[in-house]
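Q: Predict the assembly, please.
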Amino acid sequence: MLSPGQRMLRALVAWMVVGIFFFPIYYWFTIAFRIDKEIFEIPPLLLDFTFSWQSFEEVFGITIGAKGGLEVVPGGGNYYMVPRLVDSIIVAVGSTALAVTVATLASYALSRMRIPGQHHFVFWILSTRMMPPVAVAIPMFFIYKNFGLLDSHLGIIIVHALMNLPLAVLLLKSFFDDIPQEIDEAALIDGASRFLIFRKIVMPMAIGGIAATAVLCFIFSWTEFLFVLTLTQTSLKTVPVVSTTFVTSTGTAWGKMAALGVTAMIPAFIFILLVQKNLVRGLTLGSLKQ
Amino acid sequence: MNAVEYEGIAKRFGSVSVMEDISFAISEKKFVVLLGPSGCGKTTLLRMTSGLEKVSKGEIRFFGNRINEVHPRDRDIAMVFQTYALYPQMKVFDNIAFSLQVRKQPKAEIKKRVEEAAEILDLTPYLQRYPKALSGGQRQRVAMGRALVRHPKVFLFDEPLSNLDAKLRAQMRYEIRRIHNQLDTTTIYVTHDQIEAMTMADEIVVMQNGIIEQIGTPDEIYDRPANRFVADFIGSPSINFVEGVVDTTSSAPVLQVESQQLPLPTGLNLEPGRELIYGIRPLDIKHDQGSALSGSLDFIENTGAESHVHFMFGGNRMRLVKHERLSLNPGETVNFLPDLEKVHLFDKQSGARIN
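A: Predicted assembly structure:
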């Protein structure tokens, strides 16, 4: 048991850690809502800055109208970032769905079926993550050019899914390995096919692991920079890449960059919120006598 | 008719051979227990019967038909696992109904059969619960319900009671046997617990290291164990073994155990000097003040109903069971008298029974 003093200390340290992680995000928020000339004020204006939607209006071309609803700014603002957010969402959701679907099937097979050289197979999957992505950026560019995948949503979805697959497979395999084989066997004797066992019995038990994997895949795709930069031209750009357009030869538009960044948090936040309820483990509880 | 026949079954995992040549038959409606220490191959044999494990060599037949290549779902078997292997995300009803649902039985029929199985197993109040809301014994019964509902030709049990506490285990032993008597389905039951085997089986198959040591009814196996291993494995408290040499110089043959002598059953024609293992169950030794045989008391275990008297005889640790309480101090003399009709003699080298 901890004494009250120790408990207090523990809470204090915990809150300090939270503060260290949270402060930069808060600071970023305040910059998004400051007017340009207050951004570099020393000491920094953490609370009493002039609140303004100006950065958001210019970035998205949308303003809060007189009646309180959203209105399109006449002339459309200066940056047209709404389509870029949509691009990001399409790419992240698409690649997550693809990676998780393929990885779930693959890792179940790897977990349950015995193939010669299986041990090497897992290592081989992992080895694809040992190489820095930039080493394949140029070859990928040429492959994509030949396949007509350059500058398309599908192309980016595929490349992000491919990047995520190894980790997703390994992660999910460990979740499937935790589900006792006897459950499969019981269902097999009950007359279920392999696929039915997977769909009705094993997958629902691994849903926590699948959710966790989905979150990781989504965040990776949401923040990935290199492949989007090299494999797209004009028809799509995701938020990380387009953020760089605020860095110009005449200076960096910090307020606008912050406004885009703050907005970009929202879809990721919503996605994680949606998946979060499945992140609870312990679904296998009660199946077996341990 | 034989429900299940094994002929020349061999099983190898890679280069490791688990069993070489197993052959026996199980007749219809019998409750057969495969008994042996862990690693003896009993579970492997059961898994080959279920189709979860491939047979390396030999043939398994159900009602005369070879089933080596038949898929588990088409063998018309049901299996209860040691860990129960319930589906945690399904309610008890769906757990039991799953095999029927997979086979696309009509809804009304499924409901009828699940309720019937629940009735037999006293699970009716729990049908709408999830497995995690059940106790160990109830989960075990759900696992049985899943098997019952199929009306299979053969039931397979893989140590189903080993995760239950002692009291519940005794109760479930009775339940399983009662259900068997009610349904009359051929049952193969794997266990390492000789009490389960003795109390439930029509026939026991004792296995060790992938070899069948003896097949027989519980009485046969208890009364006439075929070798030293079976004698040792069956019976609680376990049998006493005393090693010695046959001596026929006096009128009745005796076993010379160091400086002391044990009487041998007559009419066996044992050559003098032969080395034997003399087995006698603790319940077959009487504590008799008038006997010439004596040992020195080690200690007495009192179980309430019985006293287990441990004593040393010619360098051997022995035990006898007495139904009355006994108050003796360690080191005092214990006079005992073995029942010569119940002595089991084994060859020292081969361990095989000789009387």
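Chain A touches chain B through 22 residues (CB under 8 Å). Strands of chain A lie at 62-64, 70-72, 247-248, 251-252.
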